[in-house]
Amino acid sequence: MEKDKDTALDKLMEVLESLGQAVEEVAGRVKQAVIDLDPDRFGPVLGADGSAKKKAAPKKAAPKKAAPKKKAAKKTAAKKTAAKKPAAKKTAGPTKAELYDQAQALGIPGRSSMSKAQLQAAIKKAQS
């Protein structure tokens, strides 16, 4: 009876060890797939081996020098003119982010690199 328990425990430990290795392998593949989907977005965060990398600290800007009074007056006039302009018209329909979410729900491949118009066309095609 004791021998059976020991054998069962040994087999269980082997299975758990193999599962752990499989989980690590799958996690590595998932990280690489994420990088492959959008390298510009995830490449700087995840290394090629899937390890997390720290983001570089932002550089501090040099202090600005005071502008001559003539330029300051021109800038003030430009600000007043800009304030009088009407706001840009809002386009009817969903935003690009909303279209992206719809495309994601429909499983449209390549959506991350599509323009708003391309997303609209792909969604229309997928829904028809």
Spell out the blueprint of helices and strands.
Blueprint lengths: L1 H36 L1 H4 L26 H16 L11 H11 L9 H12 L1
Question: Would you kindly provide a written description of the structure presented here, covering whatever features stand out?
Answer:
Helix content is 62%, strand content 0%. The mean pLDDT is 75. Helix 4 packs parallel to helix 5. The protein is mainly alpha-helical and 128 residues long. It has 5 helices and no strands. Among the domains are: 12-53; 92-128, no CATH class.
Low-pLDDT residue spans:
none
Strand pairing plus helix content: what structural class?
Answer: mainly alpha
Q: Please report the number of helical segments.
A: 5
Number of strand segments? 0
Q: Write down the Rg.
A: 28 Å
In N-to-C order, the SSE pattern is HHHHH
Proportion of helical residues: 55-70%
Strand content: under 5%
Main sheet characteristics:
none
Mean pLDDT: 75
Instruction: Name the overall outline.
Output: elongated
Distance between the termini: 65 Å
Give the gist of this structure.
The chain is an all-alpha fold. The protein is built from 5 helices and no strands. The N and C termini lie far apart (65 Å).
List keywords for this structure.
0% strand
